[in-house]
Amino acid sequence: MESKTFQIMGSFKAGRSWERFTKKLSSNNEKNAAEKLYSLIGSEHGLKRKMIRIESIEAEEV
After folding, report:
1. pTM of the model
2. Distance in angstroms (rounded) separating the CA atoms of residues 33 and 15
3. Dmax of the chain from CA atoms?
4. Which sequence spans correspond to the domains of the chain?
5. Predicted confidence (pLDDT) per residue in 4-61, tens digit
6. Right CATH for 4-59 from 3.40.50.300, 3.40.190.150, 3.90.950.10, 3.10.20.10
């Protein structure tokens, strides 16, 4: 199975405000890309999943 590049946009809780982000990840499908994002941002910023909001996931054209 070939992996695709997904662009994920959303925000995460940073103190009292919400910080916006755009991240590009390589994954097999949207669900795995979302899981990878939760893992990366959660570990980077010490956040739980409920503090990360995904607004859109788009597969990039090759």
Report:
1. 0.89
2. 25
3. 41
4. 4-59
5. 999 999 999 999 999 999 999 999 999 999 999 999 999 999 999 999 999 999 998 7
6. 3.10.20.10
